[in-house]
Amino acid sequence: MNQYDSNRILDLTKKLDYILTNKISEANCYILNTCHIREKATEKVYHDIGRVKKEFKDKKKPIVLIAGCVAQAEGDILLKKESFIDAVIGPQSYHQINNLISNLEKKRKKNNYTEFDVIEKFDILNYTKNNNSSVSSFLTIQEGCDKFCKFCVVPYTRGAEFSRSIDELVIEAKQLVDNGAKEITLLGQNVNAYCYNEKKLSDLILEISKIKRLKRIRYTTSHPRDFSKDLIQAHKDCEKLMPLIHLPVQSGSNKILKNMNRKHTIEEYFDIIENLKKSKSNIQLSSDFIIGYPGETKDDFDQTIELMKKVKFINSYSFIYSARPGTPAFNLKTIDKVVAKERLIIFQEISKKIKKDYRQSLLSKTTPVLFENKTKDGNKYFGRDEHYNSVIVESNENLTGKIKNTKITEINQNTLFGKINSKLIKEEFAA
Ligand code: SF4
User: Fold this and answer.
1) How far apart are CA 341 and CA 345, in angstroms?
2) What are 393's strand-pairing partners?
3) Which ligand 1 atom is the nearest neighbour of the CA of 261?
4) Helix pair 266-279, 298-311: axis angle to 10 deg
5) CA of 152 to the centre of ligand 1 (A)
6) Strand, coil or helix: what is 415?
7) Which member of 5, 68, 263, 296 has the lowest number of beta carbons within 10 Å of its beta carbon?
8) Among protein residues, the one whose CA lies closest to atom 6 of ligand 1
9) pLDDT of residue 406
10) Nearest residue to 13 via CA among 132, 118, 98, 75
């Protein structure tokens, strides 16, 4: 979502004649868009600002803004501690960024823009064309969260659940497709909690899938609690909807899920997966795991391993629990760090083996790949298969924006390598 927000900030600031530069030393305005989800987020901000300071040691300093969730959660502290920072602007206030920059151009006075005005934000953004021209683009459809998992900062940094209207989303999706997008990933902190005038995520997917030149639709991140039957049905009905679902579970133990306030059980989680697989047999899953949550016993951990082995997630993102300031879990007694570390290693070894076996099974198979760009390495093109695996092929033909059936010939830990299967070409590209 930060990537989407950063692109939209760029669209907005273009109105003040700012353009993007990759050279920090050339910047008149430096905006650091931050994430607060993991540990040490604030330290990373100070570290980054330290680098910028060095660049401008003997030069006039640029306007320096901290955007995103660190600004939202710790803006006052940042402004107080680091004089190089001119202003902080939260994720629900960035539609005001041009006012902020214009004010700072006139007068450098510390500013804190961190109100939660998500309705006004999207009202203003709707009047600013989305200029993102990536083959695979993001579209924020929903923001915020009402779930209040005990470990998570999102409800405090992004605010309550808010969904944008279907009409405005279809307009923005068409803009992205006109710019060259062939795939759109619908984004939300709880994307499947999307609800606008009783229309759900499944309705939105079916509406957006009518855009002819759009070939693929994805959505992330889902919450098991909101995984309704109509969404499962959409996977059956909508060919453009890709068969990889990121469905964070965090733990395999009902006791820990309850302690986390996740609002679902493992049995309900398994039911969703079973129904999804019934609706489309090639559905695969990825998930997030917190290892060593306060109160996690060996038995709880074993249940997480059992879950991992049963579902065989093709990608798992696992971290040792880290207490985030301001969350209800912050003051809970943590488990022994050494034990947590040992458990993480065990978990990651198992998930690595599952991933390896899955990737080996792709060898010699032919799969449709949407190519996103040419790499820096000669005539090689980078794309993704339906399950979001990275694929690289060599080609003299410009493949950007095209879907080609590709035979997988080689595999390493992160990338699949293949050859375009000329006998089986399924050219889906429409100019
Ligand atoms: S559902 Fe997701 S975003 Fe909401 S509180 Fe829980 S972990 Fe955070």
Assistant:
1) 6
2) 381, 418
3) 6
4) 0
5) 6
6) strand
7) 263
8) 149
9) 97
10) 98
E strand or H helix at 416: strand 415-420
Which backbone phi and psi does 160 adopt, to 5 degrees? -75, 165
Ligand 1, residue 155: give the atom nearest the CA: 5
**pTM of the entire structure?**
0.88
Residue type, 182: K
Residues 289, 249: contact at Cβ < 8 Å?
yes
Rounded CA Rg of the chain: 23
Mapped onto helix, strand or coil, the DSSP state of residue 238 is coil
Provide DSSP, 161-178. -EE--HHHHHHHHHHHHH
pLDDT digits (tens, 9 = 90+) for 60-107: 999 999 999 999 988 999 999 999 999 999 998 999 999 999 999 887
Q: What's the 192 CA to ligand 1 centre distance in angstroms? A: 12
- Supply the pLDDT for residue 423: 56
Residue 274 in this model has a pLDDT that exceeds 90: yes
pLDDT digits 0-9 by tens, 198-251? 999 999 999 999 999 999 999 999 999 999 999 999 999 999 999 999 999 999
Report the amino acid identity of residue 315: N
The size of the chain, in residues, is: 431
* Measured distance CA(190)–CA(266) in Å, rounded: 19
Q: 2-13 and 97-106 helices cross at what angle (nearest 10)?
A: 50
Pocket lining: 155 vs ligand 1, CB cutoff 6 Å: yes
Q: Tokens in use for 190?
A: 């709880």
Among 37, 142, 148, name the best residue to mutate to test ligand 1's pocket (greatest count of ligand atoms within 8 A of Cβ): 148
> Rounded to the nearest whole angstrom, what is the distance from the C-alpha of residue 256 to the centroid of ligand 1?
15
Q: What is the mean pLDDT of residues 283-298?
A: 98
Alpha-carbon gap, residue 369 to 384, rounded angstroms: 5
